[in-house]
Amino acid sequence: MFIRRSTYRRLAARAEAYAQAYVDAQRARHRKTPPAVERRNRLVQACARYRAEHVAALAAQQRRIDYLQEQVDEVLGLNSEQVRAGARWQQRRPDKPRPVAQ
Q1: What are the pLDDT digits (tens) for 38-87?
Q2: Residue-wise over 31-53: b if at least 16 C-beta within 10 A, else e?
Q3: 8 A C-beta contact, residue 90 and residue 96
Q4: End-to-end Cα separation, the chain, in angstroms
């Protein structure tokens, strides 16, 4: 069976285009991840490092704040038995205003 030269060239060009598309698809599958994904992963890792470094510092700061608050309460006399007893009275007093449900 004979075919025209122009038909042969068209078929050969089409076959070459398909072969090149296949090669491009194979390369795309094995290519590195896109830059945006890499950047996002780097940012997530940086946040995790920052959190790990500063969690201990934040906990130490909170302990210091709690200690200073205890000292202020002690100086002002808020740790006395009378104040503690009054706190219990405040919770159960009969004339305590109640929120009105609407």
Answers
A1: 888 899 999 998 888 888 888 889 999 999 999 998 888 888 787 777 76
A2: eeeeeeeeeeeeeeeeeeeeeee
A3: yes
A4: 93
The two tokens of residue 31 are: 């290519």
SS (H, E, C) the chain: CCCCHHHHHHHHHHHHHHHHHHHHHHHHHHCCCCHHHHHHHHHHHHHHHHHHHHHHHHHHHHHHHHHHHHHHHHHHCCCCHHHHHHHHHHHHCCCCCCCCCC
Give the whole-angstrom CA distance, residue 16 versus residue 54. Answer: 58
Q: What angle do CA 25, 30, 34 make, to 5 degrees?
A: 95
Is the Cα dihedral 37, 40, 44, 50 positive or negative?
Answer: positive
Could you tell me how many residues make up the chain?
A: 102
